[in-house]
Amino acid sequence: MSHSDTHRTHSRSGIRTRGLLALVTLLCCAGFLAAPSLAAAAPSPAPGTAAPPPRAPTLFVLRGLARTGPGDLAVRIRNVEWFTDRPVRRAGTMTARTLVRNWQAWGFAHDPPNAALTGHHLDVVVELSAPRVRGGQLHFHVKSVRGHLPHGNLGGVSAFVDATSPATATASTVQIVNNSGAMTMAYVFVTAGYTPVPLQSTAWLTTYELLPGTSSSLKWDTSTQLMWADQQLATGISFEAQQTLSLPPAGPGQTGVADLTQQNGSISLQADPMFAGLQTGSLAVKTETPNAPVFSGAAVALGLSGSPALVAPAGSDMTTFPVTRLTYWLASGFAGPSQVLGQFETANAVQLDFTPGITSLTATLNADGQWSVQPS
């Protein structure tokens, strides 16, 4: 967590224009009551609500009894309210644990948010960081930006938290629980549907061996790469990149192309910013003289978050990877990292449905070998 901006000036108390809204009055509660367990204090969101859209700037409202200690703010809350900045105009509620789990994905770990904290005789602006749930309360490391934050019981407060950063709200996580009764591994892979050059899936992200009753998590971002390897592809072979070329994520209206060239038998990937005509939302490898013998034993790959995810032989004029049309899957078995998968390794796969607003899922492998998946 970065604290390089320790000496923030009062200019931050102006709060980013879209980051805070007019303060809302709150019932004032006397004293700080003993908090019940989190299960009682933070029920599941109401039907029809969900976590915020991952790329929409979103503001948060915390309401509850609060107290402060040295560098600490604790708030007992039933849930966290959120709403998006215009023009998206969406709103909902989520649990405190959901806020904590998505803190980094929403850009707050890198750049801690401001919050306007109001209550009875209380009107201060603070910086919040390091959230955690403990003893039924949501705790933050707190630092004053404007005004005096007293120590002790604050009674009822409202905290209006600065907007998320859409540029950094890109991480996804799947928490994997092994309730199958047997030791196994789990791995995420992606598919792309039909492409002119057939693509093969790898065990893109893998866990270690999971004993019965244990869990692990896999997390990734939206960084994209193109890779090549001096090897022929076959099921069970692990793709081992000789070169990795990082390219910006191919979002709507964006493309990225790299030339796979050879000189004196040496292969290399080079970005081709002048190429036009590729379908938007795609990355591609354009092979120079694809029939050259040097390419017959080579392979290319789409890398996601630094690991090869989709692979293909290098001997094609153009190998296209449709980044914005990928489907994410989870399977169990014993596939190693970057291993090219066959039907056997994907037999019990379940789709990971990261619908808008969902960045974290929990997947449980049951005794019958099938998966149960739900938002975290």
List descriptors.
2 domains; 25 strands; disordered N terminus
The overall strand count is 25
Alpha-beta classification? mainly beta
**What's the helical proportion of residues?**
under 10%
- Domain tally: 2
Specify the number of helices: 2
Question: What is the overall pLDDT average?
Answer: 79
Distance between the termini: 23 Å
Whole-number radius of gyration?
24 Å
Task: Name the overall outline.
Answer: elongated
Largest sheet: 6 strands, antiparallel, barrel
SSE order: HEEEEHEEEEEEEEEEEEEEEEEEEEE
Q: Which spans have pLDDT < 50 for at least 5 consecutive residues?
A: 1-49
* Strand order in the largest sheet: 1-2-7-6-5-8
Strand % is: 35-45%
Secondary-structure topology with pairs:
Blueprint (H helix, E strand, L loop, with lengths): L37 H4 L16 E12 L2 E5 L3 E5 L6 E4 L1 H6 L12 E6 L2 E13 L2 E10 L5 E10 L10 E7 L6 E7 L8 E2 L3 E2 L8 E6 L3 E6 L13 E5 L7 E9 L2 E6 L10 E6 L11 E6 L2 E7 L4 E4 L5 E7 L16 E2 L8 E6 L5 E5 L1
Parallel strand pairs: 9-24, 16-18
Antiparallel strand pairs: 1-2, 1-3, 1-8, 2-7, 3-4, 5-6, 5-8, 6-7, 9-13, 10-12, 10-22, 11-20, 14-15, 14-19, 16-17, 18-21, 19-20, 22-23, 24-25
Can you walk through the features of this model?
The protein has 376 residues and is mainly β. The chain folds into two domains: 10-161, no CATH class; 172-375, no CATH class. It contains two helices and 25 strands. A six-stranded antiparallel barrel has the order 1-2-7-6-5-8. The chain has a five-stranded antiparallel β-sheet with strand order 11-20-19-14-15, with no helix packed on it. A hairpin with a 6-residue loop joins strand 3 (80-84) and strand 4. The protein starts with 37 loop residues before the first helix and ends with a strand.
